[in-house]
Task: inverse folding
């Protein structure tokens, strides 16, 4: 979709961010999983969330190659991957402690509700950070980096 917008004349960064915002908004649908009354509704919502995540990831990786000189793209993506790995370490700790707390209080479902809500809003929060960091984006001269 962002490529289509670019072909229609949109600036590259604006097109990528517009698609990311759309995907982040659609990703809020995962919050509905906590209200699913049937297993297939839950599977459908989780499947939609995973598909949206893949579209998000595609645009994020492309955004890095749009914004940075080719000599720096692998480093930028590597830094992002490191941050993602740290999140992959810390989030399960949060999940475990949150579910333990709610299981002990006899309301495990509430713990899952909180987790689905966190997951839903993560993409909008990330989009906001990207937007704030790229508001005054300008082309970088690769010679200034090395």
Result:
């Amino acid at each position: 979709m962002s490529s289509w917008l670019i072909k229609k004349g949109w600036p590259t960064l604006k097109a990528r961010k517009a698609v990311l915002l759309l995907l982040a908004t659609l990703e809020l649908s995962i919050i509905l999983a906590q209200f699913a009354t049937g297993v297939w509704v839950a599977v459908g919502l989780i499947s939609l969330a995973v598909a949206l995540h893949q579209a998000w990831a595609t645009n994020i990786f492309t955004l890095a190659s749009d914004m940075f000189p080719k000599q720096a793209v692998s480093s930028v993506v590597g830094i992002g991957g490191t941050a993602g790995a740290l999140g992959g370490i810390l989030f399960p700790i949060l999940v475990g402690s949150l579910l333990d707390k709610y299981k002990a209080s006899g309301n495990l479902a509430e713990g899952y509700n909180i987790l689905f809500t966190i997951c839903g809003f993560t993409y909008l929060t990330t989009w906001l950070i990207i937007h704030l960091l790229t508001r005054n984006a300008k082309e970088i001269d690769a010679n200034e980096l090395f």
Observations:
- Helices lie at 2-7, 12-27, 39-67, 70-104, 108-134, 142-145.
- The chain has one domain: 2-137.
